[in-house]
Write a structure and sequence with these properties.
The structure is a single chain. The chain has a single domain (2-237), classed as Collagenase (Catalytic Domain) (3-Layer(aba) Sandwich). It has 10 helices and 8 strands. It has helices at residues 2-5, 14-30, 43-56, 113-121, 129-140, 154-172, 187-200, 202-208, 210-220, 233-237; strands spanning 32-35, 70-74, 78-80, 84-85, 92-93, 97-99, 101-103, 109-112. The strands form 3 sheets. It has a 4-stranded mixed sheet with strand order 1-2-8-7. Strands 3-6 form a two-stranded antiparallel sheet. It has a two-stranded antiparallel sheet with strand order 4-5. β7 and β8 (109-112) form a beta hairpin. α3 crosses α4, α3 (43-56) packs across α5 (129-140) and α6 (154-172) packs across α9 (210-220). The model has no long low-confidence stretch (mean pLDDT 90).
């Protein structure tokens, strides 16, 4: 199923696929999938969502998802209503807010299936709701949503904060970046957006923001740019879908 519906699967090494299979099985056995509004969540849907989530922790281990209990799967985009923080200090909004995913601290994850499915079929588009929301869960592990996941190496933590602070400020100034503007909302969204690009447009990130790519590679223990060679190979695998 992953070979036909997730082009990135074929770019993994044999060893990576073997370890990913074990992680995916553990994830599905350990996490609770719930359907929203009578939407029928199939085994194939669970596998594709789990695969994209497990890619992030391939070298970290499933213990990094100890804060993940339930994944609520909606058929499509969810529209939030009621007062919410805008991301700008002190400002609130009552405007309807469409989302493809949401991660709750100490609570469930929300995933829109149509977005997760499309992102899976087109792994080089620079957007991925599963990567984004599960990055938030990694960020939440230490009890604070500050854009810095648990990093035990003090030198890496220092460089992480230095590099990410610099890149966040550059994004807020409107400098050209592989990261979309939403990453400028706050440090937590910056990390989630950076994670999306790291795993889906790694060559571009490595070329244009090498310091950011380096700290992400050290934290995740992966070099996704190597999977995207030759250029556009993975993108073309999902083309025409």
């Amino acid at each position: 199923m992953l070979s036909s519906r997730w082009p990135l699967w074929k770019a993994l090494t044999d060893d990576e696929r073997e370890r990913m299979e074990r992680l995916i099985k553990e994830f599905i056995a350990d996490k609770r999938f719930e359907s929203a509004k009578d939407f029928d969540v199939t085994d194939a849907m669970r596998v594709l969502i789990a695969a994209q989530a497990c890619l992030l922790v391939l070298e970290l281990g499933m213990e990094y998802y100890q804060g993940v209990g339930t994944i609520i799967v909606h058929r499509s985009t969810v529209v939030l209503r009621g007062p919410r923080a805008t991301g700008t200090a002190g400002l609130m909004s009552n405007d309807p807010f469409p989302i493809d995913g949401q991660a709750h601290y100490g609570g469930p994850l929300i995933i829109a299936w149509d977005a997760a499915s499309y992102d899976g079929r087109h792994p080089a588009r620079g957007l991925n709701v599963v990567y984004h929301e599960f990055a938030h869960k990694l960020d939440m592990l230490d009890g604070t949503i500050d854009g810095t996941p648990p990093i035990t190496d003090e030198e890496l933590r220092r460089r992480w904060i230095e590099v990410c602070t610099h890149e966040l400020k550059a994004l807020r100034r409107g400098e050209e970046s592989p990261l979309r503007a939403y990453g400028a909302e706050n440090p937590g969204e910056f990390f989630a957006v950076a994670t999306e690009v790291f795993f889906s447009r790694p060559v571009e990130l490595q070329t244009e923001r090498p310091a950011l790519y380096e700290v992400l590679a050290e934290f995740y223990g992966q070099d996704p740019a190597a999977r995207f060679a030759p250029p556009d190979a993975i993108a073309n695998a999902g083309a025409g879908d």
